[in-house]
Design goal:
With 473 residues, the chain is α+β, with helices and mostly antiparallel strands. The chain has 2 domains: 38-396, Alpha-Beta Complex (Spore Coat Polysaccharide Biosynthesis Protein SpsA, Chain A); 400-473, no CATH class. It contains 14 helices and 22 strands. It has helices at 2-10, 25-36, 40-51, 76-94, 130-144, 160-169, 214-221, 224-231, 251-259, 298-302, 324-330, 388-391, 404-421, 448-457; strands at 64-65, 98-103, 151-155, 180-184, 187-189, 191-192, 199-201, 204-205, 207-209, 235-240, 264-270, 279-284, 287-291, 314-316, 320-323, 341-345, 349-350, 356-357, 364-368, 381-385, 437-440, 469-472. The strands form 6 sheets. Strands 1, 2, 3, 4, 10, 11, 12, 13, 14, 15 and 20 form an 11-stranded mixed β-sheet that branches. It has a 3-stranded antiparallel β-sheet with strand order 6-19-16, with helices on one face. Strand 2 (98-103), helix 5 and strand 3 form a beta-alpha-beta unit. Helix 4 (76-94) crosses helix 9 (251-259). 41% of the residues are buried. Bound molecules: uridine 5'-triphosphate. Uridine 5'-triphosphate binds next to loops.
């Protein structure tokens, strides 16, 4: 206690012990444990660099748009490569070389849902949760590729218990609990605009998850990398918990990644406009990197090619394949310095009088690292274009853009399209929208090939327009 008191005093953070005499022994040790974990010299540096000033974003002068493999192969040679890659990807899946990783440690503040985001009921007809939807896709992929896929789910200290309870309550949605591995990311203390650590309670600092960049170190610290190695896993299929449209494993993407001997690959989408809120894939100094939408200078964002298309067209939906060995190499010393990104947030805190204050406007800073910053540390990278309608429906907000509503509509559209491509007649309104709420269970169908064979064997040829909804299972 004495030692900690001296350290916090030395670093001008002694206010965090303001209520120590009121605390019960257990509460006291909780706070002291949190403080012991902080590297105060590093904290001073971060406060000076990221909190007391807004860090300057330096845009490299040699910034160029990143090259990518297009959605449809451009020529015969590429066509051949894609076909080989799809076969290789499938082989790697069948050989147990791929694990699935979902990052679900975020706080989901924009959605304003009082539980882990993955538990949010998202599907349009059955109201399946995001976790259930992924679990069913993973089950189907396991059957299709005759393999047992292990699913790694990153939680944070704030939502780990609730996430695990949800899976327990729902019997892991039919998955073998041995193959669902939860691991917890690190935290960073929140800091107010005066450079002071905030207390969330009298016995606890305000701690926030350290960003999805925390995945890499958390994989090592939790022993997940060891388990992957033991299981013979070489490739990690990575996606975010709020995107139910994603292919949980994508043979073409995995195959192209492996053929390119890439360390870390990414899916890209053609941006809908210059200022769409997606990170921009760029190249600087021969390295693939993402420049956040807010940081890309306007003239670059608006720059066009001769054919009128955006020069910086490649936006990031945060879908990656990472080599297990690349993650192991990056984290081998037990630490990893990805750059920090500052986020100004409304942070609930205990004031000097011991009252909990819920601020109306941002009152402090949270620091996060981003997984895409690892792209610059990779030897080789690979970028593949995907069709947004097939791969990306983020659930960030309650309504409007990237919302629950838009996500449900996209799920319906994707499934309707799949049925149509399988030869099923789907009722549409005069303006071309799907007239019936459609949902396909991922237990039955995860791609067009599944849709074709399933509709054929179930003899599904038309969906009646008199129905309100249609659920295919
Ligand atoms: P977002 O950046 O959208 O953040 O996360 P969020 O916390 O979910 O939502 P807001 O910004 O508070 O509204 C993108 C993905 O990264 C995960 C999230 O769970 C989501 O899958 N993530 C984010 C983590 O796993 N850990 C983090 O520290 C941050």
């Amino acid at each position: 206690m004495q030692a900690i008191a001296e350290i916090v005093k030395k670093h001008k953070q002694e206010h965090v012990l303001r209520f120590i005499d009121e605390l019960k022994p257990m509460q006291r040790s909780e706070l002291l444990r949190q403080l012991e974990q902080i590297d105060f010299a590093e904290l001073d540096r971060l406060i000076a660099e990221y909190v007391m000033k807004t860090p300057e974003i330096r845009i490299p002068e040699d910034l160029e748009p990143a090259p990518f493999f297009p959605l449809k192969p451009r020529d015969d040679e590429q066509k051949k490569r894609y076909a080989e890659a799809a076969v290789l990807g499938e082989k790697l899946l069948r050989g147990g070389k791929v694990a699935v990783l979902t990052v679900a440690g975020g706080q989901g503040t924009r959605l304003g849902f009082d539980a882990p985001k993955g538990t949010f009921p998202i599907t349009p007809v059955k109201g399946k949760s995001l976790f259930q939807y992924f679990a069913e896709s993973i089950t189907r992929a396991g059957i299709k590729y005759e393999t047992e896929l292990t699913w790694y789910i990153m939680t944070s200290k704030l939502n780990n218990e609730a996430t695990r309870d949800f899976f327990e309550k729902h019997n892991y949605f039919g998955l073998d609990p041995e193959n669902v591995i939860f691991f917890t990311q690190g935290t960073m203390p929140a800091i107010d605009y005066n450079g002071k650590l905030l207390l969330a309670e009298k016995n606890s600092l305000a701690l926030a998850p350290d960003g999805h960049g925390g995945t890499l170190l958390a994989l090592r610290r939790s022993g997940c990398l060891d388990r992957m190695k033991f299981d013979g896993v070489e490739y990690i299929s990575y996606f975010q918990v709020d995107n139910p449209l994603v292919s949980v494993v994508n043979p073409l993407f995995i195959g192209l990644h492996a053929m390119a001997e890439s360390d870390m690959s990414a899916i890209m989408l053609a941006k809908t406009g210059p200022f769409e809120k997606l990170g921009n894939f760029c190249i600087s100094n021969n390295k693939l990197m993402i420049i956040e939408y807010s940081d890309l200078p306007d003239e670059l964002a608006k720059a066009r090619n001769r054919d009128g298309s955006l020069k910086f067209i490649a936006g990031s939906p945060a879908i990656h394949v990472l080599n297990r060995k690349f993650v192991a190499e990056l984290t081998k010393t037990g630490s990893l310095q990805l750059p920090w990104h500052r986020a100004d947030k409304k942070i609930k805190y205990v004031n000097g009088e011991g009252k909990i204050i819920t601020p109306e406007t941002p009152n402090g800073v949270k620091l996060e690292s981003f997984i895409f910053d690892a792209l610059q540390l990779a030897g080789k990278t690979m970028l593949l274009e995907a069709d947004r309608k097939e791969e990306f429906a983020p659930t960030k907000n309650k309504t409007g853009v990237d919302s629950v509503e838009s996500c449900r509509e996209m799920l319906i559209d994707r499934d309707a399209g799949r049925l149509e491509r399988a030869g099923v007649k789907v009722p549409r309104t005069a303006d071309g929208r799907t007239a019936v709420k459609i949902e396909i269970s991922p237990l039955a169908v995860i791609d067009d090939e599944d849709a074709r064979s399933h509709c054929k064997s179930e003899n599904i040829v038309e969906i009646s327009s008199s129905r309100e909804s249609f659920y295919l299972t």
